[in-house]
Amino acid sequence: MYRRDYIQRMIEEFARVLARAMGLRNQQRREDALHELAQSYQPFFGITPEVLYGISPEALIDLLGHERPLTPAQAGALAQALEMEASIHFGQNNSLAADRCRKALAVYTWLKTADPSTFSIPRLEAEQRLNHLLAQLLHEGG
Fold first, then answer.
1. 14: domain range?
2. Quick check: pTM over 0.85?
3. pLDDT single digits (tens) 41-92
4. What's the half-sphere exposure (Cβ side, CA atoms, 13 Å) at 73?
5. Which of 46, 79, 125, 139 has a Cα at 20 to 30 A from 7?
6. Contacts (Cβ under 8 Å, ≥6 apart) of 68
7. What is the CATH number of the domain that holds 133?
8. Residues 6 or more apart whose Cβ sits within 8 Å of residue 11
9. How far apart are CA 27 and CA 23, in angstroms?
10. Domain total for the chain?
11. pLDDT tens per residue across span 83-95
């Protein structure tokens, strides 16, 4: 019970981080938005930005499944943050945008198998957005 309450509070706080990052992105303060997200990875997910950015999507899934297991809610929040990073990098650094898309999609794929009961329409829509953005990036050479 306490663990679930603690994780729920963490997810709610991370939602505030996402909202702040989105506000910064909307103000064209991309670097500040990226910094806000990067600073949140260790406290919320136990993953340093350096590790998150430096590993492949497959290695990220191994990490989530074994070394740093996340709840489905935490994994979903991480995928949302990676999607936001992809949108921030889009048009500025398309190779980083593509990397973040791949990682977010990998997390969503992992979620489908790790906990099939967590299916949601918003997650499906996020996957569609990510696939569309990734296709666009690949078409442009990202």
1. 2-139
2. yes
3. 999 988 999 999 999 999 999 888 777 778 888 889 999 999 999 999 999 9
4. 14
5. 125
6. 45, 46, 47
7. 1.25.40
8. 73, 74, 77
9. 6
10. 1
11. 999 999 999 999 9
